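Priority: medium. Attachment 1 of 2:
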């Protein structure tokens, strides 16, 4: 390969690598069953794709095992990068409930690429539940 062609190939590879590292990850709805079992929990980012160092909002949906919407839950959120042994750089909060078992979670920001966990503590009818979601950016 001649020098100009080689330089162009390097620029293309580096440009592609940078675009992949900064473009974020597309997310389908993330779904899990609570511990203890009893709730089906789904999370979907309003920002597509999810990007690094940008604040974004998620919609959490909570339903019982019969598919009935849970509209009176109290939800707390924490998380972080288990492999890096650190938490989130922000303190996400549930700020509203649009109805039909949905809750608006604001203040989520991932500050680096890698595997992240979002952990929800959900209290419903006096019973504490946990739901954990894993997302790789």
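Attachment 2 of 2:
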């Amino acid at each position: 390969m001649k020098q100009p062609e080689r330089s162009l190939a390097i620029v293309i590879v580096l440009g592609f690598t940078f675009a992949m590292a900064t473009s974020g990850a597309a997310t389908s709805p993330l779904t899990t069953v609570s511990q203890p079992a009893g709730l089906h929990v789904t999370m979907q980012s309003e920002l597509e794709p999810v990007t690094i160092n940008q604040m974004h909002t998620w919609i959490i949906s909570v339903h019982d095992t019969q598919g009935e919407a849970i509209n009176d839950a109290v939800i707390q959120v924490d998380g972080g990068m288990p492999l890096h042994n650190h938490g989130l750089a922000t303190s996400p909060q549930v700020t509203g409930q649009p109805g039909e078992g949905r809750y608006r979670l604001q203040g989520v920001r991932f500050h680096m690429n890698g595997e992240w966990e979002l952990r929800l503590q959900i209290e419903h009818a006096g019973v504490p539940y946990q739901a954990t979601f894993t997302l790789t950016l």
